[in-house]
Specification:
The complex is a heterodimer. Chain A is an alpha+beta fold. Chain A has helices at 2-9, 14-49, 73-79, 113-119, 138-144, 183-190, 207-217, 230-270, 272-280, 285-325, 337-364; strands spanning 54-59, 70-71, 84-98, 103-111, 123-126, 133-137, 151-156, 159-170, 179-182, 195-196, 198-203, 222-226. Chain A has two domains: 2-47 and 232-364, no CATH class; 54-227, no CATH class. The chains are: A alpha+beta, B alpha+beta.
Amino acid sequence: MFLPLKALFRKGGTAPSILAIALLVAILASITSVVNHVNSQTQTLSKLRGTGETFLLMSNNSTSLTNSKVSTELIQILNENDAFKYILPQKIFTATMITISNNYTVQVTGVNTTTFFQVRHAYVNGSFADGMQANVGEILARIASIHNTDKIGIAYEDKTITVEVAGIIQTRTQSDSELIVPMNVANLLTEDNSKVSIIEFAIKANGNEEIRHINELLPADVKIVVTQQTQTFVQDLNNQTLYFLSLWSIPVYAVVTATAYMITARLTIESSYELTMLKALGAKRTQIFKLILVVTFIITSLGTIVGIAIGVAGAQIISTTLQWAWKGIQITPFLEIQQTTQIILFALTASVLGCIYPAIKATRKTYAELQL
Amino acid sequence: MKIIGFNYLQKQHFLTLTIILLLASTFFSITALGFLGIYKSFNAYLGEEENIIAIYDKKSRTPFTGLVPTYLAQRISSIDGVLSSSPEVVIPCIVKGKSIFLRGVVPNELYQLNPLIILDGETLQLNDTNSALVGKRLAKDLNLVPSDKIIVLGALSEQYIELEIKGIYESNTALDDEVIAPLYVGQWLRRTDYGHVTLIRVKIDRSKVNPSQIYETLVQEAETPAPSPSNETKPSPIQQMIPVSRATFNPENLGVKETQEFMKTFLDRYGMTRETLLILSAAVFIFATATIFASSHTLIRQHKPEITVLRSLGASAKTLKLDLVIKTIPLSVVASLVGMLIATVALLILQEVGQPQVLSHRVQFQPDLLLLALNTILVTLIVVLAIIHSTKRLDKD
């Protein structure tokens, strides 16, 4: 096998063939490496921002806050742990608010009002609700023209109660459009003391470790949701870029297939003398086929490796030049091992696909057809 | 026109070259159309019309992170020639595990800038607390229908909000990938006070007012002392609902530009112009030229017997080169046009199925005449050069 290989590689077309594959792979490698850098930078930035310290405990199968149901027994379990800054159970439901002038569909939140407004850093015009009282969010109060000491009705399913407005609150959160009532009022309306909608909590320090520990204490039917999703957001945006890149790489591999076809076609034409001699010496069709396949495989492998090197080095050189030209720009392109493997495998597969037809065609030619 | 009046080139080999040119052309077109698609989509994000301008925070590094006083929207709407003034908060967040952008708006003002067609459900009003509209593409992605409830989790702050879907809309703009909610919902997620928004979009009658006149009004407004509570005018419908305070501002930090120009400012800042993207695409294409060169060379090698016979019959090298070039030019033109067509159709199909996305918005692809010309010229030029070079080499052999 070595001698025929040597004969085929001696042809002048080998270097341009390797270069043709290498340049195509270089495009892919350089763009992937730059995208990797951008993605890693955004990931780093998102980590700097942190995940926050506020979490929600809600039922596993719930798709909204209002349909979540969590046992109040969990509050006791959480209270036994001293890792929390605060624990805030909330009963959230949609009800009808009845005022003198109109009825409104509103979201009602039952809470311990003192803890709730402390956590929300609320501005209160009036006082925190207690007993049969309610606090009204500022936006809701403006929409429904509600003032302090007004009496309003809250209707939930077939139960209606009347509460007094203890204060108008501004928290710059969703509470500004809600009716905030003490938990006893919420329980009175829902007639269920055993369940709350969610438990909001904040942890003191060592976030991931604590959350893992808390998770172990909880039953399987509840989940912990982090309220600040910076990393998920960034990860999703990065995935979109990588998906775009993978779509774009399809035509690159198509061109690699076409290039492999041309390389093989050219090889069989330019090596017709050698192939004829091999046939004359008794080489079988399968042996000729394998020989052409091996040559193309070696050329593509070399082209792919050289291409990856050119791509990453080229991107690095351009980045360094840009860094000199514009001081603010600092790009460190890199390829991950699985990406390198993927590029090599895909390029080789594309090449093998491209060379099959001309290789078969070359083996089909009879001794008399081949040019000497 | 044929110099040598018979077909000595084999159809099969000719077809192979055509396919390779077509693939290279498709590759170039996909690259360039993709880059330009991202560029155009980003520029058109806030509207493409010349009569829509943006009042924005010049210090902001992205179009989503600026802060502009909310009350200016009301002040600007009183200028003669201003048709509508829409304060908006654009905020990244997570819904059902997917990254999306939520736009807090004053619905009636937004509708005048972007007429929305409600496909299902009802339209949104500013007093629809805890409600939202969802763009048709996003609704399809997240499988949302009116009266569904969604939990919106903040990407920049520790905020969680439950919203009920009031309707699904179509706008045929980037808005179709977003959630629209009342202004204050955006402000909660942005963790800003009610006195600030991300930007104000203004629709103007250009025959009556221009961006520089609006900027002058902002300068005057900054210099005017705040009226004492007793002299304050009657609150606007927005102020009746949202506690918008009068925030002080430095007019030098505010910019007033056409929305497309505004978005272009951010791309330009990072060196992304239409020209650089075209050059980048051309550079990618030039990397692929080795394939075209190899293909053209192979075509000549495949016809070595025919060319040798013609040479021995007295055809000069020049005549042969000219004949080969004339025969391959129409081929390369057709291949590049078809390649461009294939790329455009493929990208439009992808767009139809909702892919690809950049910054959680669909990339809108559009055919580009300059690109078509560039593609055709580049492909033809490379083929011609390769044919001349290969024929010369064959002659030497």
